[in-house]
Write a structure and sequence with these properties.
By secondary structure, the chain is mostly helical. The chain contains 17 helices and no strands. 38% of the residues are buried. The protein is globular.
Length: 430
């Protein structure tokens, strides 16, 4: 018989990562991103991590990252969308024709403040309608999403071609171009204000989550661990803002702006670009999609359907209508990405969005979205898009040929799926 007087076994001590409750998958992705940045920074003699390249890398990531957030919902529900690049091209063509032909024909001149909002609304409506149509074909007519969207890949790009008669359309409205990147930024002061607001919001969110866990009698992290997470969040946010503010506007551009206002530029005057409007748009999309995924009935239905479609349908979820909604959201986000992509170029071209469907799917999968459905995160997809863009930008800077770039991207995608499979097997074995 065991000795009753023997001391009870003490609970095993938690490691630092267990105490902080850090997502190991997220930590691995951040580590991979850091390795990519360090390797390319060494190979480019320090040019990869300059403020200028970080700024360009950020605005180049936005359009794919926006679509990747929608692709998470599509893949979580056990579907796929191969048409997003072509859908982007059709929405871009529609917005370009609205700005240069349709709205001017209705009496609105290019530069009118209503041109950009009306063109964007037309593009979003186009994307949502096309997405809903594809969702109807998948959900109600039971055509596999692979076939529907593969057909859409061919159909919608050529619809865009016919809308523009195969021509490059531009220049686009100046207000519209503000959403492209360099043309529209908050400036240094506005960026610091945004950064401080973001820090406050992040700290409040962490503390609110802690209070909610206490209210529901769930275990919580030590206060010092919560404070550490707040500090890490603040450093990451303000560091990102500092890097973007460090990218200086060329003096010739500043001189031109001063001359346009009839003023003389002071000697030694400098100004940073700051956070681009397109990045603000991505942040807004990320917040909205995260709230939808975690806090709404629609999000719960999406993940429940992906986890077990039969059980979801038996529990009363209208999985057919849900499929239409998911593809409509994807279409709208593709149109929003078209705004950023065409605004960055300042014109619409027929090859816009080419191969974006592969980049978007790769970003979602690298970000931890399970192809088997039921699992995925918005922040993971955005980080996956950033890793993809970093790989491509870094290879371009070191002079890697485009075909080999695609070989590397394809290999990384396969490796990411393999890592995901091994990770899930390991977690299932515990």
């Amino acid at each position: 018989m065991a000795d009753a007087s023997a001391p009870s076994a003490s609970p095993p001590r938690k490691s630092l990562m267990q105490t902080l409750e850090v997502d190991t998958r997220l930590l691995g992705m951040i580590g991979a991103f850091a390795i990519v940045c360090i390797v390319f920074n060494v190979m480019t003699d320090g040019r990869f991590l300059t403020p200028r390249n970080v700024f360009n890398l950020t605005i180049q990531t936005v359009s794919v990252a926006i679509m990747a957030t929608g692709m998470v919902f599509v893949i979580v529900t056990r579907h796929i969308d191969l048409s997003v690049g072509s859908l982007l091209a059709t929405a871009s063509a529609m917005m370009a024709m609205m700005q240069t032909s349709i709205l001017p024909g209705m009496g609105l001149d290019l530069g009118d403040p209503w041109i950009a909002p009306l063109a964007i609304l037309a593009g979003l409506a186009t994307g949502a309608a096309i997405g809903a149509l594809q969702g109807y074909l998948v959900g109600y007519l039971a055509i596999p999403s692979f076939i529907v969207t593969l057909g859409g890949l061919l159909v919608w790009r050529n619809v865009g071609w016919y809308l523009t008669n195969g021509q490059t359309i531009g220049p686009l409205d100046e207000n519209f171009q503000l959403l492209g990147g360099i043309g529209g930024t908050l400036g240094t002061t506005g960026s610091w204000i945004l950064g401080l607001i973001a820090v406050v919001v992040a700290c409040m969110a962490i503390w609110s989550a802690r209070r909610s866990r206490i209210a529901h009698e769930f275990p919580v992290k030590p206060v010092w661990a919560e404070a550490a997470m707040m500090a890490l969040s603040a450093v990451a946010i303000l560091g990102f803002v500092a890097v973007l503010n460090a990218y200086q506007v060329p003096s010739r551009v500043l001189q031109r702006d001063f001359q346009a206002r009839g003023e003389t530029m002071p000697e030694g005057f400098t100004q940073g670009y700051g956070v681009p409007y397109s990045v603000l748009l991505l942040i807004a999309v990320a917040v909205v999609m995260t709230v939808v995924a975690r806090r709404t009935r629609l999000g719960r239905y999406i993940f429940a359907t992906g986890g077990n479609p039969d059980a979801a349908e038996l529990s009363g979820i209208n999985t057919r209508l849900l499929t239409v909604k998911v593809f409509a959201i994807m279409g709208m986000l593709a149109a929003l990405a078209a705004v950023v992509a065409s605004a960055r170029l300042s014109f619409h071209s027929n090859d816009i969005g080419t191969l974006d469907e592969l980049r978007v799917i790769a970003a979602a999968v690298i970000g931890g979205t399970a192809l088997a459905g039921g699992m995925g995160t918005i922040y993971g997809a955005i980080l996956g898009a950033l890793i993809m863009q970093s790989l491509q930008s870094g290879m371009a800077m070191v002079g890697v040929d485009a075909p080999f770039q695609n070989i590397v991207v394809g290999a990384v995608l396969v490796l990411a799926v393999l890592v995901d499979i091994l990770y899930r097997k390991r977690m299932g074995a515990r």
